[in-house]
Write a structure and sequence with these properties.
Elements: H1 2-35, H2 53-68, H3 92-104, H4 108-134, H5 136-142, H6 152-159, H7 163-180, H8 187-199, H9 203-222, H10 228-254, H11 256-259, H12 283-302, H13 306-318, H14 326-333, H15 336-339, H16 341-353, H17 361-375, H18 398-410, E1 417-419, E2 438-441, H19 443-452, E3 454-456, E4 458-463, E5 473-477, E6 480-483, H20 484-488, E7 496-499, E8 505-509, H21 515-529, E9 534-541, E10 546-553, E11 564-566
Helix pairs in contact: 1-4, 2-3, 2-4, 3-4, 4-5, 4-7, 5-16, 5-17, 7-8, 7-9, 8-9, 8-10, 9-13, 12-13, 12-16, 13-14
C-alpha cells in the first residue's frame, strides 16, 4: 500500500511538472509570436505589424464579411465595384476572425491576425501530443524548437500575409492527430471535419492532407497493418469531408480551377518573399535534425508511428517545389520548426540515452529549458539559429489610417476616389479600407510626367481590386459562371488612360520619401483648386504639418484643367 502511494505521488509530480512546462512554453511562444511584434498590446488603433499587400487583403476581407454578415459575395470595393462577384476565397479563417472579433470586442484587423498566431501555437502543442504518443521525453525536448517559427524567414509568413496557409496547417496537424486515433470508435468524424477545415482554409493544405492519408495507407499496407476498420474510417471521413465542403468545391472549380488551373512547376525562389531553408536552422540544429531523421526511419521499421510519419512526410513536402508543388511547398516550410521538431527531440534524447541509462522526466525538462534559453538568446550560442525580435508598426500608420477610414462615413457608396502617389500605396490592398473601389495613378506614369515637368489631365490609372486567379467571377447558375475581367477586357481595369477630372475625391500625400513626388502631388492639387468647384474636405496633420489632404470635385466629368500644364513656371 505504501509503495502504491509513493508511485501515485511520483506520477502526480511528473504530471504537475509537465503541466507547468506546457504553460511555460505556451507563454514563451505567445511572447515570441505576437507579444513582441505588437509591443505587448492586444488592441491597436490601426492595423499593426502588416508588411505586405497580402496581409491587408486578408484583413479587409475579414472586415468586409463582418460588415456584410456573410460571404456570399465579395464586397464591391474588393471586386472593382461589381456587386455580385462570388466570395471565392476559402472562408474558414475569415469566419473565425469575425466570430472572434465579436467575442473579444477587437477590431477585425487584430482579431484575425491574433488568431493566426494562436493557431500556430496550438499547432506546436498538438505536435507535442503527437510526439508524446511515441516518446514523452522526446516530445518535451522537441517543443522549444517551435520558437524558431517566429523569427527570420519563417516569420514573413505572418507579417507578409500567408495567413490562410498557416491557419490551414493547424487543421492539417489536427488531422494527423485524429488519424493517430483512428482505431477509436467514430474516429472518421474528426478526420472528416479536419480534412474539410484544412481545405476550406487554404485548399493546398487539403490536397497535402489527402496525400498524407494515401502515404499513411501505403505505409500500413507495407507493414501489413492495414485493417478493414482503418479503410472504412478513411472512406467515411472522406465522404463526410466532401459533404461539408461541396458548396465551396463548386465555387473552387469555377474560380481557381477554371481561371487559373494548377500547374506543376519547379521553382527555387518564392518571388520577393524570403524563403525558409533547412540551412536557416544553422549547422548544429541541422545535424540534430538529420540524426533524428535517421533514428525515425529506423524506428518506422520496427513500429509505425504518427510522429515519425508526420515528420518525414512534411520534410519531403517542404522540398516538393523540386517536383512541381512550387510555392505551396514554401508555405509548408513556414512551420518547419514545428514539423521537424520531432527529429530534433528524438536525436537529443536518443544520443543522451547512450550516456544516461535511467531517464527521468525532469532531465528532459532541464534540457528543454537550456534550449529555450539558447533559442531566445539569453545564452548566445554560435551555429544555432536564435530568436530575433521584429519591432515595426508595419506599413500602416495612424495618419493614413485616419485618411482611409474617413471615406466610409463621409462619401457616397459609388464615389470614385483617386489616389495620387503615396509611399505605401504600392501595397495596394490596404487602399480597400476606404470601402469604396480605389483608383490609383500608375507610379511609373506619374514619375515620367514629373520628369517632363508636366501636369497632365490624363494619366494611366488602375481600377484596383482582387481579380488574381478568378477574374471577378460571378455566378449565373449553380454550375455556370461569368468573368467580368474577360468580358470587360484587361484595359478596363489596368493601364487605362483616364481623365482626372472624372473623379469625385482625390487623396494627396504631402510627405514622401522622395520629396519631389510629394511636391508634385501638391502642384496638382493647386491646379485643381483653381476651379471653383474643387474643395479640400479633410486634412490629416501631425500637429504641425499637413500630411494627407483629401479634395472633392463637385462637378466630376467637367473640364477641370488643360490637357497639359507646365510646372516650370509655377
Amino acid at each position: 500500500m505504501e509503495n502504491n502511494k509513493r508511485e501515485i505521488q511520483k506520477m502526480k509530480i511528473k504530471y504537475d511538472l509537465e503541466k507547468i512546462y506546457l504553460i511555460l512554453m505556451f507563454s514563451i511562444l505567445l511572447w515570441a509570436s505576437s507579444a513582441n511584434l505588437w509591443e505587448h498590446k492586444l488592441s491597436h488603433d490601426f492595423p499593426y505589424g502588416l508588411l505586405a499587400s497580402d496581409s491587408f487583403q486578408h484583413q479587409i476581407r475579414t472586415e468586409s464579411i463582418k460588415d456584410m454578415g456573410n460571404y456570399r459575395y465579395e464586397a464591391p470595393y474588393i471586386s472593382a465595384g461589381f456587386k455580385d462577384t462570388i466570395g471565392f476565397y476559402p472562408p474558414v479563417l475569415y469566419h473565425l476572425g469575425v466570430i472572434f472579433s465579436y467575442l473579444s470586442g477587437l477590431e477585425t484587423y487584430d482579431s484575425v491576425y491574433f488568431l493566426v498566431f494562436i493557431l500556430t501555437i496550438f499547432s506546436a502543442l498538438i505536435v507535442y501530443l503527437i510526439i508524446k504518443q511515441f516518446n514523452k521525453q522526446a516530445a518535451i525536448i522537441a517543443l522549444p524548437l517551435a520558437i524558431l517559427t517566429f523569427t527570420g524567414a519563417a516569420y514573413v509568413g505572418f507579417t507578409w500575409g500567408s495567413w490562410p496557409a498557416i491557419a490551414a496547417q493547424f487543421f492539417l496537424i489536427a488531422l494527423f492527430w485524429s488519424i493517430s486515433k483512428i482505431d477509436f470508435e467514430h474516429s472518421f468524424i474528426l478526420l472528416g471535419i479536419f480534412l474539410s477545415a484544412a481545405a476550406l482554409t487554404h485548399t493546398s493544405e487539403g490536397i497535402f492532407a489527402v496525400l498524407f492519408i494515401i502515404f499513411y495507407l501505403i505505409i500500413h499496407f507495407i507493414k501489413k497493418e492495414l485493417t478493414v476498420k482503418r479503410i472504412k474510417d478513411v472512406v467515411f471521413g472522406g465522404i463526410l469531408s466532401f459533404v461539408l465542403s461541396v458548396y465551396y468545391i463548386i465555387i473552387f472549380k469555377f474560380t481557381w480551377m477554371g481561371v487559373q488551373p494548377y500547374k506543376f512547376m519547379i521553382e527555387t525562389e518564392w518571388g520577393t518573399t524570403p524563403l525558409f531553408k533547412l540551412t536557416d536552422f544553422k549547422i548544429v540544429l541541422v545535424i540534430f535534425i538529420i540524426i533524428g531523421i535517421i533514428f525515425s526511419i529506423l524506428a518506422l521499421k520496427k513500429r509505425v508511428d504518427m510522429a515519425m510519419m508526420m515528420g518525414i512526410f512534411m520534410f519531403l513536402v517542404g522540398y516538393g517545389n523540386f517536383v512541381g508543388f512550387n510555392v505551396r511547398s514554401f508555405q509548408i516550410r513556414l512551420l518547419w520548426p514545428i514539423y521537424l521538431s520531432v527529429f530534433f527531440g528524438l536525436a537529443i534524447y536518443q544520443l543522451l540515452k547512450f550516456v544516461i541509462k535511467k531517464w527521468r522526466t525532469v532531465y528532459s525538462i532541464i534540457i528543454a529549458v537550456i534550449f529555450i534559453l539558447i533559442f531566445i538568446k539569453i545564452v548566445p550560442v554560435p551555429f544555432i539559429q536564435q530568436y530575433e525580435k521584429l519591432s515595426t508598426a508595419g506599413l500602416m500608420d495612424s495618419f493614413h489610417w485616419e485618411a482611409l477610414t474617413w471615406f466610409p462615413s463621409n462619401t457616397e457608396e459609388d464615389a470614385k476616389i483617386l489616389f495620387l502617389y503615396g509611399d505605401m500605396y504600392n501595397q495596394n490592398a490596404l487602399l480597400r479600407n476606404i470601402k469604396r473601389p480605389p483608383y490609383m495613378v500608375k507610379t511609373n506614369e506619374y514619375v515620367a510626367a514629373l520628369n517632363e515637368g508636366l501636369i497632365k489631365r490624363n494619366y494611366k490609372i488602375d481600377l484596383l481590386g482582387d481579380h488574381k486567379g478568378v477574374n471577378y467571377a460571378y455566378r449565373k447558375s449553380l454550375f455556370s459562371y461569368g468573368y467580368y475581367k474577360e468580358e470587360y477586357g484587361s484595359d478596363y481595369f489596368y493601364n487605362s488612360e483616364r481623365d482626372i477630372c472624372s473623379f469625385d475625391y482625390y487623396v494627396f500625400d504631402a510627405a514622401a520619401r522622395q520629396n519631389a513626388l510629394a511636391q508634385y502631388n501638391l502642384l496638382i492639387l493647386q491646379e485643381l483648386l483653381k476651379n471653383g468647384w474643387f474643395e479640400i474636405v479633410h486634412k490629416v496633420n501631425d500637429g504641425q504639418w499637413d500630411l494627407i489632404i483629401i479634395a472633392k470635385n463637385n462637378k466630376p466629368g467637367e473640364k477641370c484643367m488643360e490637357d497639359e500644364v507646365s510646372t516650370k513656371n509655377g
